[in-house]
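Bench log. Compound arrived from synthesis this morning; before running ITC I wanted a structural hypothesis for how (S)-Methylmalonyl-Coenzyme A sits in the protein. Inputs:
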Amino acid sequence: MFMRIDHVGIACHDLEEKIAFFERTFELTVVAREVNQEQGVKEAMLHIADGQGGGSYIQLLEPLDPDTPVGKFLAKRGEGVHHVAFGVPDVAQALETIGGRGVRLLDEKPRHGSMGSSIAFLHPKDVAGMLTELVQAPER
Ligand code: MC0
């Protein structure tokens, strides 16, 4: 079902400061930036490698507001790994299969994600405490 780790999402207070840190320290490059109002984030994708069905990235996330998923996470836990996203061939199909196995779906239908992807989240309490995202990369 999973083809690759698409990205690791990291919650941070100051996006520009963390981009500079990741570029300087790990020699990574920002390949996309986006404001996603629906998800309440300002984000940047830093490319790591190309994999099956798409790339893999570090995703830096700054909340647009304290009352958003990432804003609440930062207030409760501070900066750190917010979620892990796995590349799948078909998000809608994966949701149906995984939901049928008893995992709570935070999204019943795919939503808009980074770089034109379709995404959906699974409840962390049903996945060993890990907020899990499914990602279908756009057709090329
Ligand atoms: C909350 N919890 C987490 C967590 N966030 N556990 C692991 N990882 C996280 N990131 C835990 C809390 O500690 C708490 O456990 C329980 O889940 C309920 O959390 P809450 O603080 O009461 O907050 P809720 O219930 O309002 O929301 C949590 C939930 C929410 C995961 C359902 O954040 C959500 O729907 N997230 C999916 C959307 C999202 O995260 N969007 C932002 C990234 P205890 O034990 O304390 O009860 S958007 C994105 O990344 C896009 C742009 C993309 O990739 O393309």
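What the model suggests: Residues 4-136 form a domain with the 2,3-Dihydroxybiphenyl 1,2-Dioxygenase; domain 1 fold (CATH 3.10.180.10). The first helix runs from residue 15 to 26.
ITC booked for Thursday regardless.
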